[in-house]
Amino acid sequence: MLFDVITIFPGMFEALRFGVVGKALERGLIELRAVDLRDFTFDKHRTTDDRPYGGGDGMVMKVEPVAAALAALAGGPSARKILLTPQGRPFDQALAAELAEQGRLILVCGRYEGVDERIRSYVDDELSLGDFVLSGGEVAAMALIEAVARLCPGVLGAAGAAGADSFSGSLLEHPHYTRPPEFEGRRVPPVLVSGDHAAVARWRREQSLRRTLERRPDLLDQAELGPADVEFLAAHGWGPPGRRRDHGD
Questions:
Q1: Are residues 131 and 228 in the same domain?
Q2: Residue 150 designated active-site
Q3: Which residues are 6's β-sheet partners?
């Protein structure tokens, strides 16, 4: 998997040299290239922004450097070109899985007050981390890279680890515990040390359902639920179960 990132701050992406993504880079499972947008400017000041037509506050990201950078990256494997912008569609786990199937992504990091509207004609998609504003697209691009990279084959050491993550099945993940068995009066749930693998699996599923119901009930509308799941949720105040069409009720 190859990630090309077009940015005026390529040094920011050194932060990805740590942790899971850093290990994947070292092992050659993914590749990351941070491309300095200023290398594709046309004046001695290496200008990437200018005043907006029609007046107004702030500066606008220029179209020419972005178009030139994308043209320079056109060689090699085909790529999905993505602009990181608060006006984009929300990025989520399902989309991360979809992007992980791509062989290459080119990420354009927006900056300043906004981007020249014509930039949008050079990309395939526009994505946002959520309904808030950042100073630029670099942090969003790093989040996207980590979310996608960890779904690439071989990146996570434990088989199936990514599939158990929160949002992978439209549910939040169950609670986790490790040693010591008791800390300041708080004990690990007995089921987890019972050795009964079926009971552990059932407890984890129910905890995942309960946590999603309490914290993100909106996710349940997209979750794949079986009859036992629906019965458990209904017993904890979720309903009416009949509004779902995929559990056979």
A1: no
A2: yes
A3: 35, 108
The model's pTM is 0.86
| Boundaries of domain holding 186 | 166-243
From 38, 46, 52, 86, active-site residue:
86
Any domain includes 161: no
* 143 within some domain: yes
Is 90 an active-site residue?
A: no
Q: Looking at the structure, do residues 127 and 237 belong to the same domain, yes or no?
A: no
185-212 pLDDT, tens per residue? 999 999 999 999 999 999 999 999 999 9
| Chain segment 120-175, per-residue pLDDT in tens | 999 999 999 999 999 999 999 999 999 999 999 999 975 545 655 555 578 999 99
Question: Are 94 and 206 found together in one domain?
Answer: no
Catalytic choice (10, 65, 111, 150)? 150
Residue 232, sorted as left (phi over 0), alpha (psi -120 to 50) or beta, turns out to be alpha
The CATH number that applies at residue 192 is 1.10.1270.20
